[in-house]
């Protein structure tokens, strides 16, 4: 942190991990620990940078229907992320974007929390934070039934890959450090994400909100198929390139670490 402080900029730490791996919990814990040590720490999720539903509908119409579903690179607003990072380096209030997953849309700006800057540390967490594009040859063959049936010509996966090489690159280039969590396999990610969906349904029921937009098992399987390619690529590509890499077992216990 002292190096970043001398530059007058916050230290930006990325926390990357598959869905359900505990990356959001880790980021919250790190923020509490750092704040307790007197370091003003802002916590931002790449999920909160998702494009509004109307913008994804336009992408679905103009580029590929699979872009209607939030998730892959190309369905976020990395420019918004850069704007927030720049604002967090300055003294004064910075609204932190929020995305309402139950509504599948960006929350009204009036509901965004305010961070009083400047920040000393910014934590940027998300399933594809720090991801690098795949080699073009890796895109030729579909990785699952969704890609085979609905992206046979590779337009969707090429669009996502190009987004990593293009508009996402300046955002991820701002990372000073990257922490990576990996799962044993994609089946474990499916189990973890199922737990999250059950918790979301329970929370909505407790709040008296409509749980109609939550996913049953079939919908969840389809949803996760959108993420499989990059989840597996990130685990392979960043295992030796992240500053800290933690391999988890099926119970989310760390079984191997590198960089600590």
From TrEMBL:
Instruction: Name the Gene3D superfamilies for this protein.
Output: P-loop containing nucleotide triphosphate hydrolases
Keywords recorded for this protein, A-Z = Kinase, Transferase
Which SUPFAM superfamilies does this one have? P-loop containing nucleoside triphosphate hydrolases (SSF52540)
Gene Ontology MF: a single term? kinase activity
Question: What's this protein's name?
Answer: Kinase
